[in-house]
Amino acid sequence: AQGAPRDLYRARLRVTLEGRPVTVDGIHNLTETSLGDEQSLVIRGDKAAFATASYGKIETITLLDLGGKAAASDSSFTDSVTATITNWQETGATAGVGRLDVNLDVPLDKVILAFDDEHLLIGSAGGKSMSVQITTGAIAGDASTLGVHAYVAPSLHKRPILWAVDTIRAEVGPEPVAAVEAAVFNARDLMRRTTYSIFGPSAEPASPLAQPARPPPQALDATYSQTDTSVWPPPPIPAIWKNPEPGEGTWEPVTYPWLKRLAADSPPYFFRTTVRPDPDRPYAKVLVVAMDMRQLELDMEAGVEDPKPLTGANGSGKIPRDPKILSRVVGAFNGAFKTTHGEYGMMVHRRVLLPPKPLAATLVVSDDRRVGLGTWGADTHIPADIVSYRQNLEPLVEDGKLLPSGRTQWGWQLNGTSMMTERSGICVTDASQLYYIWGDEVSAQTLGKAMILAGCTYGMHLDMNPHHTGFVFANVRTIANKDYDVKLLTPLMDMWPERYLEYSPKDFFYLMLRDPTPAGAPAESSKGAEVAWTEDVGTQPAPTWLPAVWHAMVQSAVGPADSLVQVELLAFDAGRVLFRVREARPEGHGHEYASTELGGDDVHRVVAAVGLGNPHDPQSGQGPKSPFAKLPPGALAADEATGLQLFSEAELSGRSTQPENVELPLILDGGKIPEAAKEPRTMRRRGAACVTPSGHTVIAMATADSDEAAALALARVGCIRAVALDRGSHRPTFLHRAGGAMPPLARYDESVLYAISRPMVPRAYRWK
Where residue 65 falls among pLDDT bands split at 50, 70, 90? Predict the structure, then answer.
């Protein structure tokens, strides 16, 4: 369309001797990216290449083999027949079109493509260039600088029934297929209900049928830092039946011997149980898996086929091969609907496949590795702190209410019906526990009832129908020789257990053991060796099996001679530690400074105290900039709601109603060190603080004549802004640790920042 992004088509033409087209038929769209603009097309013989730009940036370069795609070595006769038909349907050629995608971690504004005899040549701004070997896909040149990865989609071995459904749906549309599915599943449901009513045991619902009132939340006692207030496993789920089955609603730990452990004394991170939430179908069981999001991280990946991106290349369909990820994988489960069933949004590691849909139920992963469930607003702008998201339909449960939108069609069945089939969902409780929900013969309403019964306040529908839903427990040693363990949650799940490790046609989520160590700077910006964090020897907040305070020693090369300065780093997990500032003020006739004392339970929960110094001369009338020796002024603020935050001078004007700020000089801003921070002055103990993208507050301590060493060390761990812990008095700073030689005091003669242990909560939440 005029002015719209371009797609790449293939067609069969009959032309005159002069080359003018006479007839055009067999038109096939090879890309179908309504939000991606195909450009820079080059063709040589039976090879073609093009770039795809989305949101103004080129993220993918594609190499096509118009001679056809190579058949998989393990293809059966059935695979060959179905592949031939699919190839003809999608490309107009029985051999199909071979495709290799070159994905860029660093998007480009423009590329120049060309072929030589054996390579696709790729040039970009700044003189960077690389090449792709046409036959092998090997990449050479500046690939590491641009973060380039070549990917060839595997040949899928679909079950004949799934292949037939997808093939027919592509020709006739989803409605006729949904009508056939509804007839089959509804007939099965009628037969099952009739058989159970005649031959099944009696089952009488408890009166009333509504969910029994849950006891009020347990009052937490967090007087001491070593008190573990965590509630795990969750409380039992109440049954709606007078005669519940044995074990119904009771949590059972998942303890396969090959499942990895976070620590020797950590509890199992998976628990499972069964509930029967449908009063009309006592035989309909729903499985619930509770995931301990204190110990686990969640991430997602797009499938080889779905969701079909509107912006460029498809997903890899497998858990990333990064050893730092594979070595921590412990489970995976299905994602959401196909693109054709609503075009619900998905973004993976900030690469948008489908834009967000307003009012859609959404799972988000934030840059501090928390998992949120909530409804997307009316604005399609993507918040900067979201790394990945996946959407599907409206919420199934919201604020504890079932089907709040009034939707009756949950998936592609006949309008006004809710087909009894395999369904899955995910939900979060008010205690921040994350549950996966699955049933083999349930409606969307039944799935939602199970969520409410389990105590969920928000839930979203995931995928449905056999072969598309499943949860696996996993332990990966190596992928190369299939040295891994995978086990389905239940044998009733009709799914290949290795699907998410080898290849998956559709998107999915995967679970990893949490890495509690502070995240470092991105590889492309990190200087020097990776920081070696170790558990700090001082007092740790409960539970002690998951450290929250980390220690490291690094060296910074400063000055024209690159002199090495030893820098001590202490990192605090923001989810386990909160901060309070006690600003010192002049008292008495001598105007000596003194900070206000901590009170209440805080005095029993302090794990560290850090000196901030005092103003240089409070009676001089000088402005705030002069005590900072030409360093740009900034500020530090801390409260329970937002944690520790650092601000520039320009940002402070809008914080008049916020908690009190402590003015401190910036020694790192926008990732750059001011020249004044590098100037040598008095040799003394210096401190600095920053907040990393992973949410850790890092304190740097060094004996040096400038702030450069501390700033370099904090930039190395991923910080882009840092303040010197010096209000202007230029006193040697201090760091006192509970459980160490110098424990924290309740009062100091200078301003002080206290780190206080807080009750640990899972890193899943209701996102808004």
Answer: very high
- What is the CB neighbour count within 10 angstroms for residue 128? 16
d(CA 620, CA 86): 81
- The pLDDT-based confidence of 758 (bands split at 50, 70, 90) is confident
Return the residue matching tokens 């600088």: 145
Q: Which residues pair with 43 in a beta bridge?
A: 48
> Token pair for residue 699?
């304190």
Q: From CA 270, how far away is CA 262, in angstroms rounded? A: 12
> Among candidates 14, 15, 115, which has minimal Cα distance to 65?
115
Q: What is the DSSP letter of 85?
A: H
DSSP code at position 241: B
Token pair in block for residue 369: 């590795």
- Which of 154, 132, 144 is CA-nearest to residue 47? 132
Q: Which two three-digit tokens encode residue 48?
A: 């073609």
- What single-letter DSSP state applies at residue 393? S
The residue length of the chain stands at 768
Residue keyed to tokens 């900072």: 628
Residue corresponding to tokens 């009012």: 359
Q: DSSP H helical segments within 545-670, as ranges?
A: 649-652
CA dihedral (487, 492, 493, 494) positive or negative: positive
As a whole number of angstroms, the distance between CA 722 and CA 635 comes to 10
Element (H, E) at 699: strand 696-704
Smallest CA-to-CA distance from 681 within 734, 724, 617 is with 724
Read off the DSSP letter of residue 632.
Answer: P
Contact yes or no for 160/82 (Cβ under 8 A): yes
The set of residues, in sequence order, having a beta carbon less than 8 Å from that of 241 and lying 6+ positions away, is 203, 204, 205, 206, 248, 276, 282
pLDDT in tens, 100-132: 888 888 888 899 999 998 999 999 877 788 899
Spatial separation of the C-alpha atoms in residues 139 and 119, rounded to whole Å = 9
CA–CA distance, 261 with 450 (Å, rounded to integer) = 29
Could you say which DSSP state residue 164 is in? Answer: H
Q: Is the pLDDT of residue 81 over 50?
A: yes
DSSP 444: H
377-408: pLDDT as tens digits:
998 999 999 999 999 999 999 998 999 998 88
Q: At 4, which amino acid appears?
A: A
CA 611 to chain centre: 36
Tokens of 21: 């087209």
C-alpha distances out from residue 20 to 9, 92, 253, 412, 435, Å = 18, 22, 71, 45, 62
- Angstrom CA distances, 37 to 1, 7, 102, 342, stand at 12, 7, 16, 22
CB 465 within 8 A of CB 422: yes
> Among 710, 700, 755, which Cα is nearest to 551's?
700
Query: Please, what is the average pLDDT of the chain?
Result: 86
The residue behind tokens 């939707």 is: 407
Single-letter residue type at 430: D
Global pTM? 0.81
**Residue 169 parent element (H or E):** helix 160-172
User: What is the C-alpha separation between 464 and 485, in angstroms, rounded?
Assistant: 25
Q: End-to-end alpha-carbon separation of the chain, Å?
A: 37
Compute the distance between CA of residue 217 and CA of residue 708 in angstroms, rounded to an integer. Answer: 49
The SS3 of residue 202 is: coil
Cα atoms found within 13 Å of the Cα of residue 155, Cβ hemisphere only: 22
Query: If residue 753 lies in a helix (H) or strand (E), which one and from where to where?
Result: strand 751-757
The Cα 137–Cα 149 span in angstroms is 10
R_g over Cα of the chain: 30
Quickly list DSSP for 320-383.
---HHHHTTEEEEEE----GGGT---EEETTEEEEPPPTT-EEEEEETTS-EEEEE--S--PPP
